[in-house]
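BUG: 3D viewer hangs when loading the predicted structure for this chain

Environment: internal workstation, default settings.
Expected: structure renders.
Actual: progress bar stalls at 90%.

Input used:
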Amino acid sequence: MRHLKLLLVFMLAFLSQIGHSQVVEAPKWKAEVLESHFSQGDTITVLYTAEIPEDWYMYSSDFDPDVGPMVTEFSFKNEGVQEFGDVEPIGQKEKYDEIFEGDYTYFIKEAKFKQRFIANSEVPSIQTTVSYQICSDVNGQCIPFASEISVFEKVSEKSVTETSAPVALKAFDNEFASPKTEGSGFSFLLTFFLLSFGAGLIALITPCVFPMIPMTVSYFTKSNVSRKKGIAQALLYGVSIIAIYTVVGTLFSVLFGADFANFLSTHWLPNLFFFAIFVIFALSFFGMFEIRLPNKFVNKMDSQSNKTGVLGIFFMAFTLVLVSFSCTGPIAGTILLQAANGETIQPIVGMLGFSLAFALPFTLFAIFPNWLKSLPKSGGWLNTVKVVLGFVELALALKFLSIVDQVYHWNLLNRDVYLALWIVIFAFLGFYLLGKITFPHEEKKENTSIGRVISAILVFSFVIYLIPGLIGAPLKALAGYMPPLSSQSFVMNSPQASSTAQASVEISECGTPKYGNFLELPYGIQGYFDYEQALDCAKKQDKPLFIDFTGHGCVNCREMEAAVWSDPKVLKRLKKDYVVVALYVDEKTELPEDEWYVSAYDDRVKRSIGGQNLDFMIQKLNANAQPYYTLVNTDGALLSTPKSYDLSVANFVEFLDNGLKEFNEKIEIETIGNEGVQSNEPYIFIE
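C-alpha cells produced before the viewer hung:
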C-alpha cells in the first residue's frame, strides 16, 4: 500500500510539472569553516548554507527516506581531512505527511547543515556534492538538484603531521542516565566538610598561626569604643577569612574543572611537582629554611589593613592569611588536592570547612577577650608541632610519587618499598618525640614530657601496625594510601597459586586477557581489562559482567578492594558468578593508531587505554567518579543501578545478588519463550 502511495505522488508531481512548468535557479550554496586554526587530531567544522527561493522549501537530511520526499544527501571527496559523524541539519522544521503517514523535516528561506572533519594536513581540500530537492506548494512543483561546493582554505599556520590511520567518530548511546554517584551525595560531602574542619583546627596550632590569635584580638579590644561595635567587627573579620579561603576553592573548581582535575590526579608532571612541593614543605617544617611570601606584597596588604571600616577589616584578614601561608598552605593545599576527583562542589565545601575552623577562634576570642588568659603560652611546644607536621608531610609526599609509579608502570615504589619508607619515617618521628633526635634549630631537652611520651607510644604502635604489611597483611585502614597489594614482591598465603587452574580454563575459553601483562586484579580474581573481550567471554560462559571503573591513583578504589572485595562472601561471588573486567580510566598506555577515535562527547581524539575507558564511562553512564561498579548482561543491558563507594560488605553482597537474580530471571523468560513478557526496568545498552 505504501509503494502505491509513493507511485501516486510521483505521478501527480509529474503531471503537475507538465502543466505548470517554471524555471527556477538552483539554491545558492556557501561553505564556511568555523575554526580559524587546528592541530593534529582536532576537528574542523564546516557550515553549509543554502539560500532557498521564495515560495519554495527544501527537504532536510534527518528523516526516513521511506516517508516519500527526497532526502538531502551529502557526499565528500577530501584531501588532508576526513569526515566523521553524520551531517547535522540546523533549524529544520517538522511536518506530518498524511499520504505517507510519516514525519519529514524541511527548510524555508535558508537551509543550514553542519559537518565535522578531522584535520590531517595543513591545507585541507573538501569537495562536497549535495543532492537535494526543493518543492513549492504554490504551483505543486518538486525539482531535484545536485550542487558542487568546494572548501579549500588554509586554516592553520601550524604544520600538522598526517596520521597514517583513520580516526573515526565514536559515540555511545546513553539511553539511561545513571543517578548521581554516592561519592558526591550529602553524606559524603558532610564527611569531607568535617575532615576539612579538622584540618583547619590543626592549622590553628602551627607556629605561624597560634601567636597571631592574641595579637589579632588585641586590635579589636583596644581600638573599639563600644563592645557592640567590637563584636560586629570581629564577626566581619571571621567572615572575611572564610570568604578568602572559600573563594580559592571556588576558583579552583570553576577555572579548572573535572578535566584538569583528572590531569592533576594522574599525570606524571603535576604529581612529581606535588611530591617535590611536599618534600620542600617538610624540610621547611624541619627548620632547614622558612617559606615566606615576598615582604613587599605582605607589607602592601598590611598597609591596607590600617584603613578603617569594612575594607580595613577585610585587609587585616587577608594579611593573616598571607602571614600564616607557610603553615596553612600545605594543609589547605592538601584539601584541594584531595578534592581533585572531578567533583565541582567538593573544593568549595572543603575550603569552607577549613576556613570556618580557622576563623572560629579568632572571632570568638575577639568577642570574648577574657578567654585569652586561658591559652597556653607560645613556646617550644609549637616548634614540636611544626616538626611533627614535617614528618607527616614527608610521608604524604610518597603518595604522589606512588601514583606516578603505578600509572606509568615504573615499578620503583612497590608496596613493600613504600611500607619500608613509612616505617622508617614514623619510627624517626617516635624517636624525635622521645628526645632522641634533635634538629639544629632546637635545644636538646633534658626531660621528656608526659605528652611527648604518650604521643611516642601512639606513633610506635602505628609503626608496629605497619610491619605485618611487609609480608602481605592488607592494612585495610590505610589501603587507600598504599600501592595495591598486587605490586608487592612477597605475599604470605597468596591466593594466586590456588587460582591457576581456574585461570587456565578461562584463558582457553576466552583467550588471554588483553593488557594482562601490565594490569592486574586483586586477590587472585581472573578477569579482563578490555570491555569487548570481557563481554564476549560473558556470552561464552553465560554469566553476567561485572564492570569495575577504577584508577591507579584512586584512593577509594583501593579502600573498597581492601575492605569489601577481600571479604570471602564478596570474593566468592566475583570469582564464581561474574566475569570481571577492570577498566582503568587513568591508564596512560597509548593504543595503536588504528584504534584511536574521536569522542562524540568532547570532540577529542582518544589515544590511550584510560582515555577511551573514561570516555566510555562518561558517554554510557553519565558518570566520571571512581570507583563505579556496573552489572550488565550478555547483551550489554544494565542489570541494576550502578554502585559507587560504599564500605558496607552487606550492601555490596546485596548489589551482586540482585544483579545475578535479574540476570537469571531474564534467562528464564527467554527460555520459556513468553514473547509478551517485557521488563519495566530501564536498560542501558553498552555496545
